[in-house]
Design brief:
This protein has 283 residues and is of the alpha/beta class. Helices cover 39% and strands 15% of the residues. Strands 3-2-1-4-5-6-7 form a seven-stranded parallel β-sheet, with helices on both faces. A two-stranded antiparallel ribbon has the order 8-9. Bound molecules: NADP nicotinamide-adenine-dinucleotide phosphate (NAP).
Length: 283
């Protein structure tokens, strides 16, 4: 039986990039999905839209519905879990993957930019967890996965290839550091109720449209990139096993638990935790 048969998952930031990869991998394991992004579609070209992501899963024999919600808006996200449960029933899994990343020097990042990043990257995951937890605790079954980033930590000197990791990414990284810490505390609060909460970050750069500003760095240093399939597989591990309060990195997690990496449709074994990235692909 597929790993997520009978499970329902809400995945934010699922129109493209890592969130869409996780959605496809979870669909292949039998999960029914509510996919969220701030916009449903675009006029004309549907590439990288929520509409396209949902159609891809439904056309492949899975079951997905779309909810457009701007997670930066506290009012708009206040009933997102209720909307998701109305659409597909009680949620077993939430993957808080959507994020906002403003690259700006720490000395100059504005209040509006900081508030927006803290809202999407920290307050939204907390709000969605708090909305879902009563039901998950009652059913004594749930998984909450918060997608984090290595930028939560200041890198060691000398900085590899670029100063980006040293300063302009710091304000965004601080939202992820807060998310990691919150996650650990919540995980220990609710593990006894059968709810498993963790964070997962890419070990390396996943070449998404959101990570385009570091594409040249990845091209110069191929070992600084990882395929989206590695993150999707690690997310699957954290949404069906009983890990508690881990702050995980994708390749390290897969290596530690001895888990192979599969194609997003689940049909093909691609390799192990060291699977190299295609540097020209965009997830
Ligand atoms: N790519 C990497 O190398 C990397 C490295 C470290 C950490 N991460 C983390 O991995 C996660 C995914 O990154 P990614 O590179 O795949 O991102 P991405 O390609 O930029 O995609 C971001 C997703 O989030 C959605 N989103 C953004 N703002 C939103 C909002 N206000 N409300 C609702 N949805 C919103 C976007 O959809 P719309 O635009 O339609 O709203 C899109 O679906 C993030 O948490 C990021 O911090 C990525």
């Amino acid at each position: 039986m597929a790993a997520l048969t009978g499970m329902t998952a809400l995945i934010t930031g699922a129109s493209r990039g890592i969130g869409r990869g996780i959605a496809r991998r979870f669909a292949a394991e039998g999960a029914r999905l509510v996919l969220c992004a701030s916009r449903l579609g675009a006029h004309g070209d549907l590439k990288g839209t929520l509409q396209e992501a949902v159609a891809e899963i439904n056309d492949g024999g899975g079951e997905a519905v779309a909810i457009a919600c701007d997670l930066a808006d506290a009012g708009a996200r206040a009933d997102l879990v209720a909307q998701a449960q109305e659409a597909l029933g009680p949620l077993d899994i939430i993957v808080n993957n959507a994020a906002a990343a403003v690259m700006q020097l720490p000395s100059q990042v504005s209040t509006a930019e900081r508030n927006m990043m803290y809202d999407v990257n920290l307050n939204a995951p907390i709000d969605l967890a708090q909305q879902a937890l009563p039901g998950m605790r009652e059913r004594r079954r749930g998984w909450i996965l918060n997608i984090s980033s290595a930028s939560a930590h200041q890198p060691v000197v000398p900085y590899r290839d670029s100063q980006i990791a040293a300063h302009v990414i710091a304000a965004y990284g601080s939202t992820k550091a807060a998310l990691d810490r919150y996650t650990q505390g919540l995980a220990h609060e609710v593990a006894g109720d059968g709810v498993f909460v963790n964070t997962l970050a890419p070990e390396n750069i996943v070449l998404t449209s959101g990570a385009d500003y570091v594409r040249d760095i990845a091209r110069r240093n191929p070992d600084m990139a990882e395929p989206v399939e590695v993150m999707a597989e690690a997310a699957l591990e954290l949404c069906c096993a009983r890990h508690v309060g881990q702050v995980c990195y994708s390749r390290r997690l897969l290596h530690a638990v001895g888990r192979d990496v599969y194609s997003l449709d689940g049909r093909e074994r691609l390799g192990d935790a060291f699977l190299p990235a295609d540097l020209e692909a965009t997830a």
